[in-house]
């Protein structure tokens, strides 16, 4: 009877504990994010990070997921596409259409709608008298192949851009941790395999689904007998092998989009995503993301994932060197002489960082191919 009472109370008690733990993590994360530049001591910083907690994905049969609808003070998403600054039309001058793809840095994690990288690119164009409509087709966590699938969908629907930009590299490199078990992985391949397995169980094996839910929810069972991972951990591979694999896949993605550009009449730019290690002069805040520096209070971030470990930096730079030697755009020089804070963690630029990257990127646009400017 005692055992039965324990088991009966296990799930609701576990749910309460998990909920409290999740709230504590969310509040600690929000406080840490709001305490950084550029949010600290502003009237909007804390409100921004509260708003972004409403971010949630919805299933998409072509690209796995896209963010759901959002309408807020800082973040607005309609039909999976984030609002972007659109300069007013200039009489007698054509508006040039740019499709912008990438992961969370391109989407604008940490930035307000009109301060994202796509918005800043449109604003820099406006400064130069060039009317750019930049559609933010990026998505947090996406890798190149998801952007390519979305591009195919837009081309099939009749949309015709002048230029297609992919700003990427971080998610492709992080995804390589699942190689060779997963070929061209998405950001969290384990999550979606798990979801599919649960869907099958719910449809055809409901008792097993109930037992799986109980084991996953119960603090007792999940501690004593945790479920194995759906995807086996990747075997240790050398830096050279990972570099060859990731760079080969990345260059194949680039060649695919370039072939589409020749067929549909648009120019293509693949841009290697700038990271905090590209800055020669780190601010005090950015030093906390420099996991390659000796450990100290000055190099320890509030959240561990903000820091770039030495081995991941080596992998990212090795892959970047390989692809940039084959025509991928290098924007590391965007921060030359910049000592101010340009990043909010090792991979996400601040709003000011977005401006600097956009200014460097604008110089690489094929404006010479755009008559009538």
Concise summary:
This protein has 373 residues and is α/β, with parallel strands linked by helices. The chain has a single domain, classed as 3-Layer(aba) Sandwich (Rossmann fold).
> Unreliable segments (pLDDT under 50, ≥5 consecutive)?
none
Using the 3D structure, state the CATH architecture.
3-Layer(aba) Sandwich
CATH topology: Rossmann fold
Separation, N- and C-terminal Cα atoms: 82 Å
C-alpha Rg, in Å? 22 Å
Structure report:
- This protein is of the alpha/beta class.
- It has helices at residues 2-34, 45-52, 104-107, 117-127, 144-156, 170-175, 189-204, 206-217, 219-224, 239-264, 284-287, 310-324, 351-362; strands at 57-60, 64-67, 70-71, 76-78, 81-82, 96-102, 132-136, 163-168, 267-272, 290-291, 308-309, 329-330.
- The protein has a single domain (35-180, 234-367), classed as Rossmann fold, CATH 3.40.50.1110.
- Helices cover 45% and strands 12% of the residues.
- The strands form 4 sheets. Strands 7-6-8-9-12 form a 5-stranded parallel sheet, sandwiched between helices.
- α1 (2-34) packs across α2 and α10 packs across α12.
- The radius of gyration is 22 Å and the shape is globular.
- The termini are far apart.
């Amino acid at each position: 009877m005692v055992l039965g009472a324990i088991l009966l109370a296990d799930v609701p008690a576990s749910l309460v504990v998990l909920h409290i733990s999740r709230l504590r993590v969310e509040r600690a994360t929000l406080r840490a994010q709001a305490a950084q530049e550029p949010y600290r001591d502003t009237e909007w910083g804390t409100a921004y990070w509260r708003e972004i907690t409403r971010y949630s994905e919805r299933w998409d049969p072509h690209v796995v997921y896209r963010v759901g609808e959002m309408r807020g003070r800082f973040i607005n998403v309609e039909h999976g596409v984030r609002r972007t600054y659109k300069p007013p039309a200039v009489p007698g001058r054509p508006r040039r259409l740019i499709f912008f793809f990438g992961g969370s840095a391109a989407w604008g994690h940490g930035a307000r709608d009109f301060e994202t990288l796509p918005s800043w690119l449109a604003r820099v164009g406006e400064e130069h008298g060039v009317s750019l409509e930049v559609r933010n087709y990026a998505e947090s966590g996406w890798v190149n192949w998801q952007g390519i699938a979305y591009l195919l969908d837009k081309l099939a629907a009749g949309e015709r851009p002048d230029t297609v930009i992919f700003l990427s590299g971080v998610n492709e490199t992080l995804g390589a941790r699942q190689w060779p078990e997963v070929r061209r992985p998405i950001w969290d391949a384990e999550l979606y395999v798990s979801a599919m397995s649960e869907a099958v169980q719910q449809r055809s094996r409901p008792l097993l689904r109930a037992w799986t839910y109980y084991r996953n929810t119960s603090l007792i069972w999940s501690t004593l007998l945790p479920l194995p991972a759906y995807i086996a951990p990747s075997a240790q591979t050398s830096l050279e092998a990972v570099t060859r694999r990731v760079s080969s896949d990345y260059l194949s993605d680039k060649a695919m989009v370039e072939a589409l550009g020749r067929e549909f009449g648009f120019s293509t730019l693949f841009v290697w995503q700038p990271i905090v290690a590209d800055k020669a002069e780190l601010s005090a805040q950015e030093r906390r993301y420099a996991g390659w520096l000796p450990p100290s209070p000055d190099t320890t971030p509030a959240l561990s994932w903000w820091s770039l470990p030495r081995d991941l930096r080596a992998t990212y730079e090795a892959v970047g060197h390989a692809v940039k030697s084959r025509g991928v755009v290098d924007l590391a020089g965007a921060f030359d002489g910049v000592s101010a804070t340009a990043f909010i963690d090792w991979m996400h630029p601040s709003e000011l960082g977005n401006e600097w990257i956009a200014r460097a990127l604008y110089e690489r646009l094929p404006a010479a191919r755009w008559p009538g400017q």
